[in-house]
Amino acid sequence: MFLPPPEVLDFFPDYRTTQIAWQGLAPVAAWAIWSLKPGRVVELGSYRGDSFFAFLDAASQVPELREIVAVDSWTGDKHTGPFTGQVYAQFHDELERRGDHRVRSIRALFSDAATQFEEGSIDMLHIDGAHEYDAVKLDFEQWLPKMSPNGVVLFHDTMVTDPDFGVWQVWAEIEAAYPNRTFNFEHSNGLGVLFLGDDTTGDFRQLALLPPREAAILRDTMRLTGEAIVNTTRYEYLLITRNGGAVDVGHIYSRGHDRTRIERLRSIEATRLETHALNAWIEQWFNVHKGDLTAALVEPSMLTQTKLLREEFEGQLQHHVARLEQLLAEQGNAIRLSLEPLVIQALTTPGGSLGPALASFLAEMSREKNDAQDDSIMSLGSKADAQDQAIDTILNYIRRNDPRFTS
């Protein structure tokens, strides 16, 4: 079975923006760079840089690569809409941050930029500019003479068949014109690979020769590998926005395998969910047993049964609180949830006249608890405080109304 090297499946881009359409193809980009070892790579249409910097990440391990060039007007087109200056600024800032002497950008129309390259000087070309049929066909025809004899051309969006997208049509023509020299990855909107020459050196060039079954298995493998990257971006987006953060169009997600930020967000989210689970469990437990608890306040014969309920409650409560404290400890948070044993003792001690008022206690506790259920993670500390306040509310009510506490 033909599969890429393990390092391809492990590849995770260092740079991810809000433009996820290309992110799932980052392992393919790394595989192409590592296997083909091109001397010069040119990208037509770099936008915010997800594809370009994926190529560059892989290029760090390929000393044979002399130059990687980003070509874009950074003004936008029919499908992206007009760009603001922030788009180019974001790309340029990342370029400067890398400080790689092999990198340059050309801010120009593709047709104008083509005049800066000699014929036969480009080993890998990635076409991802305007997506109308005429535009894609023109890009290919204008830049084809610039390709080296064994060059490779990549076409993004080969699987998008919307009426105003023409990449798939150009790709169909290329497949017909270059038999046994193409391969199409079908995930992340599709990436067509055209091998111009007869060279079969390196595993990446074997793609065009794969039998259908092995080709299908490989496509599924690379799709799943890419989806792991895209889903990480989506999950990080949800965690940030769900917990009160903002993700603007220029957002850059946590870099590469440095998972510190995303793991912290996951831990916070787990704590938030556990806090909600504890609140829900307390409410459910009291709703189930409030009749017995009410009876115990006025009927001494119910003491034994209520003692068992108390032990059950304390046991389950200890489990919930232990889990929550573990989560809080993992994120280095000093907040801890605790429940005053006195509230259980007060609610399960026979005698007094609190039976009719117990529903009021529970309602008041529920209001306090609901106030604590703010979805913003920034209020986690106040959630714990609100839970303590709910307990104090019950205790204070008991103390005010039960003569055993006021005498």
Automatic annotation (TrEMBL):
<dbReference type="GO" id="GO:0008168">
    <property type="term" value="F:methyltransferase activity"/>
</dbReference>
<dbReference type="GO" id="GO:0071770">
    <property type="term" value="P:DIM/DIP cell wall layer assembly"/>
</dbReference>
<dbReference type="GO" id="GO:0032259">
    <property type="term" value="P:methylation"/>
</dbReference>
<dbReference type="InterPro" id="IPR029063">
    <property type="entry name" value="SAM-dependent_MTases_sf"/>
</dbReference>
<dbReference type="Pfam" id="PF13578">
    <property type="entry name" value="Methyltransf_24"/>
</dbReference>
<protein>
    <submittedName>
        <fullName>Class I SAM-dependent methyltransferase</fullName>
    </submittedName>
</protein>
<keyword id="KW-0489">Methyltransferase</keyword>
<dbReference type="GO" id="GO:0005886">
    <property type="term" value="C:plasma membrane"/>
</dbReference>
<keyword id="KW-0808">Transferase</keyword>
